[in-house]
Every structure is written in C-alpha cells, then in structure tokens.
Amino acid sequence: VTAAAGTAVGNTVTPTGASCGTCTTTTPVAKPGVALSKTAKAPRSPAQVNDLIEYTLTMNVTDAKTLELITLTDTLGTGLELVTSSIVAPRFTCNAANPLVCTLPAGTAIGTHTVTYKARVTTAATGSVTNSVTGVPCATGACTTTTPVIKPSVSVSKSTTASGSVEIGDTLNYTLRVLVADATTLTDVVLTDVLGAGLELVANSVTGAGFDITSTSTGGFTATLPAGAPARAAAYTVTYQAKVTAAAGTAVGNTVTPTGA
C-alpha cells in the first residue's frame, strides 16, 4: 500500500479462457490523521520579566502511523528567550535555538506526542509575549499563544514633618517614599538626596529597611533599593534628620533625585 492510496485500494484480475467468479478485491485503507495544538503555562497572570513560561506542543496521530517526516517550527516572539536545557521531546528531534525546529519521524505510531520547553520573559517584552508553531494544519488559534506581561511602576516622593516656620538649630524629620506597583523592580532604584544651604544631615540618622545607604556626608547621602524589590501596597521608606544651620536664608530646601523611578 503506497501513499497514493485513497480510502481503499482495489485489485482486479481479468481472465481469458475461463469464467470469473470474484475477480476484484477492495481493501479499506486507513491514513494517518495529525492534529497539532499549543498551550502556555505562566507562573502567574499577568507574567513578569524573568518569569519562566512553560510551552507544550501536542501532536495527536490518529488512524495510522505517520507516512512522512513531520517538521514543526516554533517561533518565540519578542520578549521571550528559550531555555535550551528545558526541552523535553521523547519522540521528536529538536534543535536548541529560536526558532525551535522539531521533527517527528515517518512511521511514528498512533498516539499523543509532545514537546515541552520553557522560555524566559525578558525586558524586551511589551504588554504581552506571543509564540507560534507551524508545520501542520491547526484549529483556529490553537497554534499561537499570547501571554500578558506587566512591568513595574516605580514612583518616588518626599515629605517633612515641619509645619510653618523653623528656626536655626531646629531638627527636621524627612521621609523618602518609593512606591513599587504591578511587578518586581527590574533595576536598582537610586535616590540621591542633596541638602540645600542651611541644612546639615544629623549623623547616623539615615535609616531605611531594604536600602543600601552610601556616600553619607553632612550635605546628603545616596540610598539604593536593589533590583528585585517586590510590588506592594506600602511604600519602601528612608527616614533621616537634618538640622537648620546659621547658613539658612529665609527658607531651606531639600531635593532628592531618583534613577530607576
């Protein structure tokens, strides 16, 4: 039986010098059916940068063993990086690159045959990441996945408890607030706080859980919230005190300059 067979094959003998009883045979032929689908499983929704999304390609072979080599080409969209060590494909032969190319040999038996792998969400992701596989016909949408991705929103504010006028020698309390929303921070948030004329930082007064405090002097300091700070409802805070000195004019100013926010 060759690949040219339809749903049945026929065979006829024509005799001469004899009569024919049954001289034609018809034999039904089962040809393979193949159906491909793809799924994505993220550790949370929406996914975040550095999350690993697990992808599964499912090839169902029905009715008969495959007649020819089947090649699947899986293309990871912008914002996805293939984790080559995660590829598991018992019946397929795959490369280790994007696009991921996997072949299923001719003669593969009836059954379900899968390829699974993981891809890391990168900083290049914008809004969502997509992933598509081609090679055999798919049901509408069954071979493309789209996974929403959210990035962090980071804002900084500053306040003081001083109200009304202050005098030389007064000590003022200041608070820096870093609000991280939506997702874990991707880069360091660096706060450079510079005290204006007439203010002097009180020694050892700078505190901030989770911050690295450096470059401390009477004129200011640097506070760094490392990358990887989780989003949360409460702000990350740095508090400190500054004394009003005789160099103050009619007002004292204090400025924080953030990077990464």
What tags apply to this protein structure?
51% strand, 4-stranded antiparallel beta sheet, mainly beta
Q: How is this structure best described in words?
A:
By secondary structure, the protein is mostly beta strands. It is built from no helices and 19 strands. The chain has strands spanning 8-12, 24-28, 33-41, 52-62, 70-76, 80-88, 93-94, 100-104, 111-121, 128-134, 144-148, 153-160, 171-181, 189-195, 199-201, 212-217, 220-225, 236-244, 254-259.
Taking all Cα atoms into account, the compactness measure Rg is 34 Å
Largest sheet: 5 strands, antiparallel
Oligomer: single chain
User: If you average the pLDDT, what whole number results?
Assistant: 93
- Strand ordering within the main sheet: 7-8-5-10-11
Query: How many angstroms separate the termini?
Result: 69 Å
Instruction: Assess the beta-strand content as a share of residues.
Output: over 45%
Number of strands: 19
Number of helices: 0
Could you state the order of secondary-structure elements as H and E? EEEEEEEEEEEEEEEEEEE
Q: Helix/strand-derived class?
A: mainly beta
**Could you name the ranges where pLDDT drops below 50 across 5 or more consecutive residues?**
none
Report helical residue fraction.
under 10%
Shape annotation: rod-shaped
